[in-house]
Structure formats: C-alpha cells, structure tokens
Design goal:
alpha+beta; 4-stranded mixed beta sheet; 5 helices; 4 strands
C-alpha cells in the first residue's frame, strides 16, 4: 500500500471530508497541518512538480492576504514563478487544500471525493 501525506487546515470542511474518506478506505497516511508546519519553498516546488501545476494554480486568491498582496495583478509566467512560491511559503493560508502527496511521487489537490479516490486508486 502506498503511504500518503495530506496537507490540511482542520477548520476546512473539504479537508475533514477528505480525511473521513481516507479513514473509511483504510488509507495509510500522515496529516500535516500546513499552517503550523509550513512547507518550505523547496517543498512547494516539489508538490507543484508532482501536481504538474504552477503556483498560481494552487493559490487561494480570495484570501484576505491575497488581496493585501494584490495577487490578482501578479504576472502568471515563468518570470514571476519564484515570487508566487515565496508568497505561498510566507503565507501558507494561500495554499489550496487539502493536498495529498504519495510515496510514488504523485500528488492531487483533494477538494472533491473524486480527487481523493484518484489518490487512493494509485
């Protein structure tokens, strides 16, 4: 069985739903409360590579801090990629959740039951 890690905010209903589904399926996973155990820029880069996404794809643009930083106006291209990653590391609340990473090198943004099942099916 593949071991997984799930990045959660306990206050998030989608995170709680994902955990319930993982438990129901008997998944082998560890929980990372990413607001307390903040991912480094390197960890964020690794997860983005696994997801095959860019940092702006996993950024919660509606968060108050996103509005303060003016993220909607930031360029979404290679020249700005590191700036986005730095913002996610500095303000983890901006990171979309939950994210499940697996030992096989895959990852998924687990906001739906289908996405959690996708992680479980590997």
């Amino acid at each position: 069985m593949i071991r997984m890690e799930i990045w959660i905010n306990p206050a998030c209903s989608k995170c709680r739903s994902a955990l319930s589904l993982l438990d129901a399926e008997g998944a082998d996973y560890t929980v990372r409360r990413y607001l307390e155990d903040v991912p480094s820029e390197d960890e964020i880069r690794d997860v983005l590579d696994r997801l095959n996404l860019e940092p702006w794809d996993i950024t919660r643009i509606q968060e108050a801090v996103a509005k303060e930083l003016g993220l909607k106006e930031w360029p979404r291209d290679a020249s700005a990629r590191e700036r986005w990653i730095a913002a996610l590391a500095e303000h983890p609340k901006l990171i979309q959740r939950p994210i499940i990473t697996a030992d096989d090198g895959t990852a998924v943004v687990a906001r739906t039951e289908e996405a959690v099942r996708d992680a479980l099916s590997r």
